[in-house]
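Dear Dr. L.,

I hope this message finds you well. Following up on our conversation about the binding site, I have prepared a predicted three-dimensional model of the protein together with nicotinamide-adenine-dinucleotide. For your records, I am including the exact sequence and ligand specification that went into the calculation, followed by the structure tokens. Please feel free to forward this to your student if that is useful.
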Amino acid sequence: MLSKILPALRGVLAENRSLPRLIKTEAKGDEPVISITPGSEDVYAEIKQQLPASQSHAVTIAGYGTYAAVFPVPGSGGRAAGKIAVVTGAAQGFGYEIACSLAGEGGWVALADINEAGVQQAVAEINRELGREAAIGVTVNVADVDSLSAAIESIVKSFGGIDLFISNAGVLRAGSVKTLSERDLNFVTDVNYKGYFFSVQAVAPIMALQHQGAPDIWSDIIQINSKSGLVGSNKNGAYAGSKFGGIGLTQSFALELVADGIKVNSICPGNFYDGPLWSDPVTGLFKQYLDSGKVPGAKTFDDVKAHYEAQVPMRRGCTTPDVMKAIFYLMEQSYETGQALPVTGGQVMLS
Ligand SMILES: NC(=O)c1ccc[n+]([C@@H]2O[C@H](COP(=O)([O-])OP(=O)(O)OC[C@H]3O[C@@H](n4cnc5c(N)ncnc54)[C@H](O)[C@@H]3O)[C@@H](O)[C@H]2O)c1
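The resulting structure of the complex is given below.
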């Protein structure tokens, strides 16, 4: 119930086009007290009816405790100041660096990953680097509905709601259509396609509740897709298919969720050579492609990289700062939804 009450309360307590973070606190005794019917169908209406017009910055919810509303300090800056963000697949790679950037820009960030130890280490690094408790970590399998709903519930209990959801968790099993196993196809489809669907299913109701009380404030869902969601990928059909499907979901969700003040967009990055997916010395794609002879004549990782960079008009791979510019554009652009934005150095051009 609390994961419905807190987002609705955020909307009611919104000020200056900003939703507060809600933090559990000690009651002073002078806060308004609200009481929500267990299983209520309209939590927002019950809160609105009980809260006095002169709003307090702390509210006691009968049976759940007292919550304080915390707004960003005016002038504290940052392009994500006061925003509550969730990044899936954030223990490493793009997800980790996106989480670092959002926290560095003043956001509260929940890192969600199937790698429990990795995500806790990532959170510790961000908080140590910034000198504030900007990040929390949750273990989640985005391909599992129950795991996702438990993760979202625990994030909402910590922060009060969610303003920005980055669906980044993704996996790749390359292989020919003639030989790829059903198991590998299911693995890629479950994480990349169904995981995105389940993620939006879990987070959209939270964002919708916030929007009820604050109809001027919009939330963002951004899927980290791929250039392989826009053009086919040779001997990589399971991955490309899952990413093409993701764009179909983005367009469909955008049409539906506009009514709840939620923008839904995808970002389609080019190859990210600096991340572990490519550069891990044991499991990375440079090693795999070198060993399998996929790049004719290549003798080193650098030869493999040069082969792929030569396919990019700008002659380099994608970096997280390139992706962050797209994320901030989509967050700040109030008049766009349902788009798939390439960040590929010109390798993929939209028609
Ligand atoms: N690396 C690239 O070249 C590249 C290019 C374009 C798009 N992308 C996309 O960017 C996203 C991130 O890629 P990356 O290169 O950082 O990958 P990565 O392999 O470095 O990291 C992926 C993270 O997702 C986590 N994860 C995997 N399955 C999960 C699950 N079921 N539930 C929760 N977490 C899970 C992993 O533990 C890992 O921390 C993916 O969606 C990928 O398709 C990557």
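In brief: The chain has three domains: 2-70, 84-270+320-343, 272-311.

With kind regards,
A. P.
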